[in-house]
Design brief:
This protein has twelve helices and 16 strands. It has 442 residues and is α/β, with parallel strands linked by helices. It folds into two domains: 309 residues, Alkaline Phosphatase, subunit A; 81 residues, no CATH class. Strands 4-16-5-15-14-3-11-6 form an eight-stranded mixed sheet, with helices on both faces. A two-stranded antiparallel sheet has the order 1-2. A hairpin with a 2-residue loop joins strand 1 and strand 2. Helix 5 runs parallel beside helix 9, helix 8 runs antiparallel to helix 9 and helix 9 packs parallel to helix 11. The longest helix is centred in the C-terminal third of the chain and has 27 residues.
Length: 442
């Protein structure tokens, strides 16, 4: 019989702390029947900028998903794990008397439900974001209250959009109305935050010897494995293999030359490939959820208003430039290809969550992953009928495999309230929310 392990077991050695994935030996009375109820819920928010080509995003019919629109086609394998929601509105991303600046407001208001103060100075103000509401509620249950990552750095100053501070265009998570949570961009730093316990002599020694973190915990894990059942030993081996693969990819990225990028300074160990960068961050996020190091995360694929080009898919114009398409068919097709690239990366991350077993289900079954944008059509800068996908079954409390169309002008904060309820946040209201989305339960 396997020995009982604490859910908080850490393997430690030379400044590294490696949390374990969920194992059968961690349940005092394990049964497949009650496993789903004992798993913690994870909540993640994934953001893409400049809106979406909505004609190839929105399913034609409500109800059961039969055939996904072309932009969402990479999610075909995950069709039964997603809910597409149409009709939600971010009213506080609208001008409401403040004039131009829709990109800054789109990201600033997306998770906060608050109108960003129009300023390009240090007196910025918006509101507490929904991820941080959940993080505060769960702060004493995980090693990290939340994880904020992204492929673009968060600018904390300057004028990025018609008199709005760059902090709004580059920050999606806010601990308070005046405290932005900058994103971590460098995969090495994310890895260290998840697994390192110091940055002094032990860290220098580990790096100098160029040995994996796992080399310092193998001795402890060896004694641990001897007391585990066959399923747990296999799962532990798969987990260690995943960590070692990520370490190797980060080291490889640090050694390879960077692609020339005028006026842009990339931090060390950021892959020159945008796709590899996103996927490294995705793998790290999966590990963070798998080990219960955190249950709350935000992931920004690119900052709002991003003019990143995509030459690797033969698009050399900037994304923001193309989003002002004026219904030009050639520009619309390129916007569609960029959108498709982003959903392909989403499919990669969701696939990893789905393939990670936990109890009698998967990590995705015990998650709520929201993907979307604070803009709908980038040309019109409209903030109604937003493109939103919710992935994961939230331990059976969300009915998936559907397209749900809510009444137009329904506040997106109603969705946030519904997710907060599932996190047992105890929050009664949020932003301009008017209630909960009963449609989520089917």
């Amino acid at each position: 019989m396997s020995k009982l392990l604490s859910r908080r077991t850490l393997l430690k050695g030379l400044g590294a702390a490696v949390a374990l994935p969920w194992l059968e030996a961690m349940d005092p009375i394990y049964s497949w029947a009650n496993a789903a109820q004992s798993r913690p819920l994870r909540l993640g928010f994934f953001y893409v900028p400049n809106g979406i080509h909505m004609q190839d995003w929105r399913p034609n019919d409500e109800g059961r998903l039969c055939e996904l629109p072309s932009i969402l086609s990479p999610l075909a394998r995950l069709e039964d794990d997603i809910t597409i929601i149409s009709g939600l509105t971010a009213d506080k991303a609208r001008p409401n008397g403040d004039g131009p600046g829709d990109h800054a407001r789109a990201m600033g208001a997306f998770l906060t439900g608050a109108q960003p103060r129009k300023t390009d100075g240090s007196d910025f103000r918006v509101g507490v974001s929904v991820d941080q509401v959940a993080a505060t509620r769960l702060a004493d249950q995980t090693r990290l209250a939340s994880l904020e990552i992204g492929a673009d750095p968060s600018a904390m100053a300057g004028n990025c959009d018609s008199g709005y501070s760059c902090v709004y265009s580059g920050t999606i998570s806010w601990r308070s109305a005046t405290t932005p949570m900058p994103k971590m961009v460098n995969p090495r730093l994310v890895f260290d935050r998840l697994f390192s316990t110091d940055s002094g002599a032990n860290r220098a020694r580990r790096d100098a010897q160029r040995r994996s973190i796992l080399d310092f915990v193998r001795e402890e894990s060896g004694s641990l494995e001897r007391g585990l059942g066959a399923n747990d030993r296999r799962k532990l081996d798969e987990y260690f293999t995943a960590i070692r693969d990520i370490e190797a990819r980060i080291d490889r990225a640090a050694r390879l030359p960077q692609v020339a990028a005028p006026n842009v300074t990339l931090p060390a160990a950021v892959p020159s490939s945008y796709e590899e960068h996103i996927r490294l961050l995705a793998d790290l996020l999966v590990l963070a959820f798998q080990t219960d190091t955190t249950r709350i995360a935000t992931f920004v694929f690119a900052n709002e208003g991003s003019n990143r080009s995509y030459p690797f898919i033969n698009i050399r114009e900037g994304h923001h430039e193309l989003s002002h398409h004026e219904n030009n068919p050639a520009k619309l097709d390129k916007i569609k290809q960029i959108n498709l690239f982003h959903t392909t990366q989403l499919a990669y991350l969701l696939g990893k969550l789905k393939d990670t077993r936990e109890g009698n289900g998967s990590l995705l079954d015990h998650s709520m992953i929201v993907y979307g944008s604070g803009n709908s059509d980038g040309n019109r800068h409209n903030h109604d009928d937003l493109p939103i996908v919710v992935a994961g079954k939230a331990s059976g409390t969300i009915a998936t495999g559907r397209h749900v169309r809510v009444t137009r002008e329904t506040p997106i904060n109603n969705l946030w309230l519904s997710l907060l309820d599932r996190m047992d946040s105890g929050v009664e209201s949020f932003g301009d929310g008017t209630g909960r989305l009963s449609e989520l339960a089917g």
